[in-house]
From TrEMBL:
Protein's name in the database: DUF3828 domain-containing protein
Pfam family membership, one: DUF3828
Residues in DUF3828 domain copies: 49-149
The organism's taxonomic lineage, starting at the top: Bacteria, Pseudomonadati, Pseudomonadota, Alphaproteobacteria, Hyphomicrobiales
Keywords: Signal
Species of origin: Bradyrhizobium barranii subsp. barranii
Keyword Ribosomal protein: no
Length: 169
């Protein structure tokens, strides 16, 4: 039965700004939460928490990307570093995040591309290397990261491509 109270609550949720909705309902909110955590303190803790273990990957990444990553990890010889040997969230070996800006470049019903521009304390990076792009897909009413892309010294990289390429060797 729909009471006046539940109707009002549902109406408020439907019209609330994305900042007040659960993070899984909005890719911009998800990345804002991730980078807020990354930029805390000296901004040097990085974003490894997004990919540090299977539970973290399952929380943030699409099922397809989690499965691809698992195949790549299984293909990596024991004792070797996996195909992703840096922090893709900060696009670095040594995280340095002072501030960030999140921009929705493309938003559709079931996929989105969001760009995050990172400003560090050192400012020793090429402008293109300060932008990390995220491809999101909607799975079971939640947004998940399906790829992370950036560039290092002007050379483009993609997590999905790195993982796929590692399976070819």
């Amino acid at each position: 039965m729909l009471t006046r109270r539940t109707f009002v609550a549902a109406s408020l949720l439907a019209t609330a700004s994305p900042a007040f909705l659960p993070a899984s309902s909005d890719p911009v909110a998800i990345l804002t939460a991730i980078y807020t955590r990354v930029a805390k303190g000296k901004g040097d803790s990085g974003g490894a928490f997004v990919i540090e273990n299977k539970a973290a990957k399952t929380k943030y990444l699409s099922r397809a990307l989690v499965a691809l990553w698992a195949r790549a990890d299984a293909h990596t010889p024991k004792g070797d570093v996996g195909p992703v040997d840096f922090d893709p969230v900060t696009n670095s070996q040594e995280p340095d995040v002072k501030s960030f800006k999140v921009d929705a470049e493309k938003m559709e019903a079931d996929k989105a591309t969001i760009a995050v521009t990172i400003t560090g304390h050192r400012n020793d990076r090429k402008p293109a290397d300060q932008i990390v792009r995220y491809d999101f897909v909607r799975e079971a009413n939640s947004w998940r990261i399906d790829d992370i892309k950036g560039s290092s010294d002007g050379e483009a990289w993609s997590i999905r491509k790195m993982l796929a390429d590692s399976l070819k060797t």
